[in-house]
Design a protein that fits this description.
The complex is a heterodimer of chains A (165) and B (263). With 165 residues, chain A is mainly alpha-helical. Chain A contains 9 helices and no strands. Chain A has 2 domains: 90 residues, no CATH class; 73 residues, Winged helix-like DNA-binding domain superfamily/Winged helix DNA-binding domain (Arc Repressor Mutant, subunit A, Orthogonal Bundle), CATH 1.10.10. In chain A, 70% of the residues lie in helices and 0% in strands. Chain A starts with 6 loop residues before the first helix and ends in a 10-residue tail after the last helix. Chain B folds into 2 domains: 55 residues; 188 residues, no CATH class. Chain B contains 3 helices and 12 strands. A 4-stranded antiparallel sheet of chain B has the order 9-8-11-12, with no helix packed on it. A 3-stranded antiparallel sheet of chain B has the order 1-2-4, covered by helices on one side. Chain B starts with a helix and ends in a 14-residue tail after the last strand. The chains are: A mainly alpha (165), B alpha+beta (263).
Chain lengths: 165, 263
C-alpha cells in the first residue's frame, strides 16, 4: 500500500536502536518492546507525513518516551503489587556493573531517566532533549544534574558518573 | 567502576540484541486498528451530537453494534466499541448500581468506589454487558470484579456472590445461562486481545474481544454471549498478533487443557 511504502525499511533500520534506547528508560525489556511497538504503530498510521521528515526516528523516539512516561505514571501506585504478584523485570544478560546501573536508573524519576538516556546515550544536546521532553533547557540541566548525583550516590562512584553538560 | 556513557551503551546494546518485536507488518496492523478505533469514537461522538440535536437519543443504542472485525460464524460482537467511565443512561446506571453493590461487598481491593471497566450493547442478544471492578490494593494478589449481562432497560441480577479472583491467572472462565442466551466471562492476561471459545459438538468458534481496563488492574476482562443450548468446552486467549497466550478447559471431560480457574 502506498501509504506504508518505505515503512518496513524504516522499521527494520531503526527498531533495534530504539529498543536499546528505551530499555534503560523502562528498566524492563518487555516494557521497552511494548512502547516501541506502539510508537511504530502510531508512526505507521501517519507514515505519509512522517516519511517527509528529516529524522522520522526522532518522532518515534519521542512518542515512545511519552508512552513510557505515561505507563510509568499509571503503574506507579501498583509497583509493589507488580513486584509481588507479577514476574520480575525482564533484563537481558549484562555485566554486573550495567545491571547495577539498571537498578540505579530505576530509582530516578522517569523524566530524569529520560533526560540522562537522551543526553548521554542518544547524544542529543540539552536543547534537543528539552524539545523531545517538551520542557525548557534549564529544567533538563537540572534533571541531568540531579540524576547524575543520585546515580553517583547509588553506584558509590561520585567522580565516575558522567560530566556536567 | 562504571562510566555512565559506557554503561548506558552496554544496556542499549543488550536491549537491541535481545529485544524482539512482532515486526513492521504487525505495527501497521496495530496502527490501522488504532485508527479505526479513533475514527469510530469520533463518529460516535458526532452521531451523539447529531442525535441529541434531533431529539433522537433513543436510537443511540444501535451505534454500539458495529460489526466485529474477526470472521465468525456467530453473531458479531462489537470488538472495541466499548464505553467506559461513569455511565449516564438510565439502563447503564441501573446495571452499574447492581454490579457496584455486589463488588463493594467483595472482600479486597482499595476502599474507593468500584469503577466501571467498560460496557457495551449487543443488538443480537438485546443485552447490555458491563464489567465493574475495584482496584486491587498494593501487594494484593486478587481482584474483586463482576461482569454482568442485563436487559436493555438495565434490569437483571448476578448469578452468585462476587468473590476475589486471582490476578496471577492467565485465563479464567465462568459460564452462566440467561433467558435466550448463555454467557462466559473471566479474567485474562493483559497482553490478550481476544478470547476464543470452543463449543461441544459444534464447529463454531466465538471470538470475544478483550476489555482493556486501566493498567492498574493488572489484568484484563472478557464477557461473551452465545446462543442458548451451546455448551462451552474450552477458552483460549490470543494477543493482537494472533499468538496463543493461554488456554483452559471449561469442561475438562471434553478438552485436553487444564481446568479453567473459576469454572
Amino acid at each position: 500500500m502506498a501509504d506504508t511504502q518505505g515503512f518496513e525499511e524504516f522499521y527494520t533500520a531503526t527498531v533495534e536502536r530504539l529498543l536499546g534506547q528505551l530499555f534503560p528508560v523502562t528498566g524492563d525489556l518487555h516494557e521497552a518492546e511494548e512502547v516501541v511497538q506502539e510508537a511504530f504503530a502510531r508512526a505507521s498510521s501517519r507514515w505519509g507525513r512522517l516519511r517527509t521528515y528529516d529524522v522520522p526516528e526522532a518522532w518515534v523516539r519521542r512518542v515512545a518516551m511519552n508512552l513510557a512516561a505515561d505507563r510509568h505514571r499509571r503503574s506507579r501506585r501498583q509497583v509493589a503489587a507488580l513486584h509481588r504478584a507479577g514476574p520480575p523485570p525482564s533484563v537481558p544478560p549484562v555485566s554486573v556493573e550495567a545491571l547495577a546501573l539498571v537498578h540505579a536508573l530505576g530509582t530516578l524519576p522517569i523524566r530524569q531517566r529520560q533526560a540522562i538516556v537522551l543526553h548521554y546515550l542518544v547524544d542529543l544536546p540539552v536543547e534537543e532533549v528539552a524539545a523531545t521532553l517538551s520542557t525548557s533547557p534549564g529544567t533538563v540541566k537540572s534533571w541531568l544534574a540531579r540524576g547524575r548525583r543520585t546515580l553517583a550516590a547509588r553506584l558509590g562512584e561520585a567522580e565516575e558518573v558522567g560530566n556536567a553538560p | 567502576m562504571i562510566d555512565l556513557r559506557e554503561g548506558l551503551q552496554e544496556l542499549a546494546d543488550a536491549g537491541a540484541r535481545h529485544g524482539t518485536t512482532p515486526g513492521p507488518a504487525a505495527a501497521i496492523r496495530r496502527g490501522r486498528q488504532r485508527r479505526r478505533r479513533i475514527v469510530g469514537t469520533i463518529a460516535a461522538v458526532i452521531a451523539l451530537a447529531l442525535a441529541v440535536g434531533n431529539g433522537a437519543t433513543a436510537r443511540l443504542a444501535d451505534l454500539s453494534d458495529l460489526p466485529a472485525t474477526t470472521p465468525s460464524t456467530l453473531p458479531p460482537m462489537p470488538p472495541l466499541d466499548l464505553r467506559s467511565g461513569l455511565p449516564t443512561g438510565p439502563a447503564e446506571t441501573a446495571a452499574f448500581r447492581t454490579l457496584e453493590r455486589r463488588v463493594r461487598r467483595c472482600r479486597g481491593g482499595v476502599l474507593e468506589q468500584p469503577q466501571v471497566v467498560g460496557y457495551f450493547r449487543s443488538a443480537e442478544f438485546r443485552r447490555l454487558v458491563m464489567v465493574v471492578a475495584k482496584l486491587p490494593s498494593v501487594g494484593e494478589g486478587t481482584i474483586c470484579w463482576a461482569g454482568g449481562v442485563f436487559g436493555l432497560d438495565g434490569a437483571g441480577a448476578l448469578p452468585g456472590p462476587v468473590r476475589p479472583a486471582s490476578i496471577a491467572t492467565g485465563l479464567g472462565a465462568q459460564v452462566s445461562r440467561g433467558a435466550g442466551y448463555g454467557w462466559v466471562r473471566g479474567l485474562v492476561d493483559r497482553r490478550s486481545f481476544r478470547v476464543r471459545v470452543r463449543f461441544r459438538d459444534r464447529p463454531d468458534l466465538l471470538d470475544v474481544p478483550v476489555i482493556h481496563g486501566s493498567h492498574t488492574y493488572l489484568v484484563n476482562f472478557y464477557v461473551g454471549l452465545f446462543p442458548p443450548g451451546w455448551v462451552p468446552v474450552e477458552v483460549t486467549a490470543f494477543d493482537a498478533e494472533g499468538r496463543q497466550l493461554a488456554g483452559c478447559a471449561v469442561d475438562p471431560s471434553a478438552s485436553a487443557l487444564p481446568r479453567c480457574p473459576g469454572s
